[in-house]
Design brief:
mainly alpha
Length: 251
């Protein structure tokens, strides 16, 4: 006869399969999530702040999960450049501002103006990534760069070719245009106010620290430097670049 202890014994529980319950499983990280978080860290604190540990904390994940998408920090930096470069694709279709697709009737110039201002907007939004846009592609041959970093160049070559430039002319025009843009945004990012509370332009920019006998012209430009307008400067430079390209196209 069974005793009382037998009746009190709990029913057997099913054996564990060793697999986590689906209800509590978190979705796997995507490359897009990782790169978005990486760019956010770079934007906030600079390139040196980006580490696998810091990225894991930002994503609330074990850093080891990141290695499935990026082998090391260099791969993360390449991915960050590609992620930002995706915002720089040359617009090809008409929009509400009257910018047409590439082709005749001067539309290619309007597209370049649109592209230039998009580039400036993206650069100002990601100032710490701008140096990476310049230096990361130099780490390997053109053909081995991440495809995302080459799409803007391909779009520009198509734009200039459709406008009437031959192959060599299209390549020269694309290099000239991108070189101007990089130079402009680097200059603009350096145009920082040293002391915003000062009313004197020389003091606001900190130019008073420069020896007067060595930098008389630079100090004399304090007012012009203090009133720097990046968008207007970009348009002035574009006018010169486009005039030169237009002249080449005619000849």
């Amino acid at each position: 006869m069974a005793n009382d202890a037998d009746h009190a014994r709990p029913a057997a529980t099913p054996k564990s399969t060793g697999r986590p319950m689906s209800a509590g499983r978190r979705p796997a990280l995507t490359r897009e999530q990782i790169l978005t978080a990486a760019v956010a860290i770079i934007d906030a604190d600079g390139v040196e702040a980006l580490t696998m540990r810091r990225l894991g904390q930002a994503l609330d994940r074990d850093p080891m999960a990141i290695y499935k998408h990026a082998a090391d920090k260099d791969a993360l930096l390449d991915g960050a450049v590609e992620h930002v470069a995706a915002e720089l694709v040359t617009p090809r279709k008409p929009d509400g501002n009257g910018v047409g697709s590439a082709g005749g009737d001067g539309d290619w110039e309007a597209v370049l103006r649109r592209t230039a201002h998009t580039f400036r907007r993206v650069a100002l939004a990601h100032p710490h990534v701008v140096p990476l846009l310049l230096t990361r592609p130099l780490s390997g041959p053109l053909a081995l760069r991440p495809l995302g970093t080459l799409r803007n160049l391909e779009e520009l070559l198509e734009l200039f070719s459709t406008a009437g430039f031959d192959q060599h002319g299209a390549l020269h025009a694309a290099r000239l245009f991108t070189g101007f843009l990089y130079g402009h945004v680097l200059h603009e990012l350096q145009e920082q106010i040293d002391n915003p509370d000062e009313t004197d332009d020389l003091l606001r920019l900190g130019l008073h620290r420069l020896p007067l006998t060595e930098f008389p012209r630079l100090r004399s430009l304090a007012t012009a430097l203090a009133s720097y307008d990046g968008a207007a400067e970009l348009d002035e430079g574009l006018a010169i670049i486009l005039a030169g390209l237009r002249s080449q196209l005619r000849t």
